[in-house]
Automatic annotation (TrEMBL):
Signal peptide: none annotated. PROSITE patterns: CN_HYDROLASE, UPF0012. Residues 1-239 form the CN hydrolase domain. This is Carbon-nitrogen family hydrolase.
Length: 265
């Protein structure tokens, strides 16, 4: 299986519409790949909070249209990163979209853990409530977004729902790159899955983005990694490695379920 991570530069100097067209052209160039992935909130900018209202869209909005058409034209699965979704009630969500080779929307995931403490997502967006693992020709494909990486219980939930590959679009600040590298590898080792993290580059909302998109195997080895500028990272992934590593080091069999949870403090 050949995967490509489109590490886009998300800069305030470019409009969402122009970036959408540029990203679609890059997806079309990836004909021959199996899965192409984009970063978190790459249209509006994950840190450009003031632009979210203007750039919010539906699950059938301009980003979905363009990405569905690009997936169909290239004949690849496209994980279109995430969009600022506005639902029928006007609530906004940070929502990941997954299209198949025919351009059909096969899954979407509303980010459960909202970043920002008393700002940004934490106040401007609703939180998702559903754990989403989508059955695909590659195996179970789990969906999570950026800050979710800090919450291992979500990843255990994705595993229990059948994930063998987890895709994480992100817009991570360069100042915390060390956390990103550690968390991505930890989640891959812990769940014994391939983990694809597609991270924005560039700067917007006054925050320099980390880049360093990564493909990590179920052993925790970084198979491919980008630098800190816009670039496309491509890797060949052997999904049979998941079963091989799970059988060679069967730690998941040793889970003890039903340990009583202490009261939350
Ligand atoms: N976009 C995000 O979710 C940012 C997360 C982050 O900066 C962190 O966890 O640190």
């Amino acid at each position: 299986m050949r995967v490509s991570l489109l590490q886009l530069s998300v800069d305030s100097t470019e409009t969402a519409g122009d970036r959408r067209l540029r990203a679609a052209a890059k997806v079309r160039e990836r004909a021959g790949d199996d899965l192409v992935v984009l970063p978190e909130l790459w249209t509006a900018g994950a840190w450009a909070y003031d632009d979210w209202e203007r750039d919010a869209e539906g699950l059938d909005g301009p980003t979905a249209d363009v990405m569905s058409a690009a997936a169909r034209a290239a004949g690849v699965w496209v994980h279109a990163g995430s969009i600022v979704e506005r639902d029928a009630d006007g609530t906004k969500y940070n929502t990941a979209l997954l299209f198949d080779r025919e351009g059909s929307l096969r899954g979407h995931y509303r980010k459960i853990h909202r970043y920002g403490f008393d700002t940004g997502e934490a106040v401007a967006m609703g939180g998702g409530s559903d754990i989403v693992t989508v059955p695909t020709e590659f195996g179970g494909l789990g969906l999570a977004i950026c800050y979710d990486l800090r919450f291992p219980e979500l990843f255990r939930g994705l595993l229990d729902a059948g994930a063998e590959l987890i895709v994480v679009p992100a817009a991570w600040p360069a100042a915390r790159l060390a956390h990103l590298e550690l968390l991505v590898r930890a989640r891959a080792v812990e769940e014994q899955v391939f983990l694809l993290a597609c991270v924005a580059a560039g700067a917007h909302g006054g925050v320099q983005q980390a880049g360093h998109s990564m493909v990590v195997d179920p052993w925790g080895t970084v198979v491919a990694e980008a630098g800190d500028h816009e670039e496309t990272v491509t890797a060949d992934v052997d999904m049979a490695e998941v079963a091989r590593i799970r059988s060679e080091l069967p730690v998941l069999r040793d889970r003890v379920l039903g340990i009583p949870a202490p009261a939350l403090r």
